[in-house]
Specification:
It is a single chain. This protein has eleven helices and 14 strands. By secondary structure, it is α/β, with parallel strands linked by helices. The protein has two domains: about 1-125 and about 265-369, Isopropylmalate Dehydrogenase (3-Layer(aba) Sandwich); about 135-260, Isopropylmalate Dehydrogenase, CATH 3.40.718.10. It has a ten-stranded mixed sheet, with helices on both faces. Strands 6-7 form a two-stranded antiparallel sheet. Strands 13-14 form a two-stranded parallel sheet. The protein is globular and about 55 Å long. Bound molecules: 3-isopropylmalic acid (IPM) and magnesium ion (MG). The site of 3-isopropylmalic acid has 5 residues, from helix 4.
Amino acid sequence: MSATTFTIAALAGDGIGPEVMREALKVLRAAEARFGLHLTITEAPVGWAGIDAAGDALPATTLELCRKSDAILFGSVGLPDRDPTIPKEKRPERAALLRLRKEFSLFANLRPVRLPKELSHACPLRPERQGGGLDLLVVRELTGGLYFGQPKKTEDIPGGQRSVDTMVYTSAEVERIAHVAFRTARLRRKKVTSIDKANVLENGILWREVVTRVGREYPEVTLEHMFVDNAAMQLVLKPTQFDVVLCENLFGDILSDEAAALGGSLGMLPSASLGNTTGDRTFGLYEPAGGTAPDIAGKDLANPIAQILSAGLLLRHSLRHDDAALAIEAAVQRVIGQGLRTGDIFNPAEPAARRVGTREMGDAIAAAV
Ligand code: IPM
Ligand code: MG
């Protein structure tokens, strides 16, 4: 029998973070009650909220809480217009989010994109390009590549400045993320499309070689390679060809936003960032892919579904309660089926649609769980 007692660090962060987190916690509590779990959920500041509370985007007490927890449910951080004078290393994106990813070696980022057929109207593609609804998974390498490679700096040179970012991958880093992609594909439609720029980048050549080698260990999975520029185009021309899309860090960042738009809205895209599994423990950070959306923050307009589905992924991957994760996914599906729509997925032409706020959407999903 699997464990039922867990500790979760809930870091809501900035912008819409707190209001969508509130709804996700409601839904988690509903799942807790239904599946007989015992969740200790502790909230702590991060991002600008961390800077305001303790002078640090990732306060020491918050990091300590994360270390003691089974998983982190993360909101979003970063407010582009706040205090441009703060040094870039202290800004929340780097000092909190990237630091957490690195600190816990969360190298595997899973971003499942689904376009339910009810939300066909919210997809920017014509219906004939959507198949019967879309379902693909971006597997993004999260602790390597241009985000973290050294040197990384800007320096003065005669007549101007010069900045360097470094794209580095070791074969071991490519291998471990490739295994994640193939293992996941085995449980899905058994196809991996590996993205690279092997026609130009050394990194791309290594990436392709290593992924091909790892792929031989998964003969039941079809492997296809695609250049990143072509992939960006194929995603809008024929998204139904994709099952698992395997990307390095920056390519995955870009393509996952593009894929999210196909799923109806960035407000629907959850993510799981996972480290190594030791025994039956997989530590992970779970966050919506969408960001802080400061323009709509505090107005009860944000779509809480990405945060709620992230809580579902937390139940699945770190708490190993697939039953509870499925219940949350089914509840979201049901509420969408009933026609509840936040602004980002609302279309007045849809006959049964009813526009609701963040809170009402959360309440409905919690009730459906
Ligand atoms: C994401 C975000 C982050 C990233 C930013 C906020 C640093 O865009 O999770 O996709 O680039 O990884
Ligand atoms: Mg991004």
